[in-house]
Amino acid sequence: MLKVVGASWLQTRISTYILVAVALLGIGTIILGEFGLVEKDGTYSATVSWNHKGGYRIDFWGQGNDLTNVRLNAARAYYKTGIFESGWSIIEIETSSKYPDTVQAYAAGLLEGSLTWQIIHHHWYNTVNVVCEKWAYECQKLMRFLHENTIIVRERAEHLASTDPFWHMVRLFYVQLDGLEAGWKFAVRRSRQTVEMNKEHFLWLAMAADLPDLERTLNSSESYRDYIKGMIFLKSLSREGLDPLVAIGHTTAAP
């Protein structure tokens, strides 16, 4: 037994008990740490909750979660990047029908924007930014058109959404886009980065496939038209004893 010089036997016993307790606590921490070690599987989870008073709240749960146990709330998402393995990243978003459509749409945008903020910025930088550096005048003209058009469409959607299913979906598109922008900006601040994107840039990325047609209407720049080209190839492949297989190949150059 440990004997402390100048201390009573009672004090000595107490000191011994404390040392034993600390040792056991350390051993327990090591054991629990080994069993509780979370494997970094590359799949990130996040959820969005909402209520009338507090509004939206996004929570990030990191990696290694049992996806079936991640609480749904207003929406939940699972995101895994495989850029260096397969060239693709995957995001799965689920919303709860217990919440209004607008809440579901905004929550889905929050999750997409916050979890994929780096990919969104890289995509913008490598496409929109590259084109607009070369054709600054055309981009400014197109941006003004999109800004003015968006104001009109949003007002019409707000007015008709309650009575017309089409305009209801149009409204949800813009609501989700607002959520995506808010989620992106939140993630940038959370990551302490200084990158920036304008509001119109998110709309630009969302409607990239339609921009060449808009450009042809607004401009007569042959060089810009030549830059934006794409091709889709369809072919029916016969298979013995089976239905034909339709093969689809495409090349694109998004602005």
Automatic annotation (TrEMBL):
Per the record, the similarity remark reads: Belongs to the phospholipase B-like family.
| Statement: the UniProt record of this protein carries the keyword Signal | yes
Q: Which InterPro entries match?
A: PLipase_B-like
Q: Which organism is it from?
A: Atta cephalotes
What's this protein's function? Putative phospholipase.
Any single GO CC term annotated in Swiss-Prot or TrEMBL for this entry? extracellular region
Give the keywords, sorted.
Glycoprotein, Hydrolase, Lipid degradation, Lipid metabolism, Membrane, Signal, Transmembrane, Transmembrane helix
Name this protein carries in UniProt: Phospholipase B-like
Organism taxonomic ancestry: Eukaryota, Metazoa, Ecdysozoa, Arthropoda, Hexapoda
Q: Which E.C. number(s) belong to this protein?
A: 3.1.1.-
Superkingdom, according to UniProt?
Eukaryota
GO terms, biological process? phospholipid catabolic process
Pfam families reported for this sequence: Phospholip_B (PF04916)
One MF term from GO for this chain? phospholipase activity
Chain segments annotated as transmembrane:
14-37
- Which Gene3D superfamilies does this entry report, sorted A to Z? 3.60.60.30
* Key word Glycoprotein present: yes
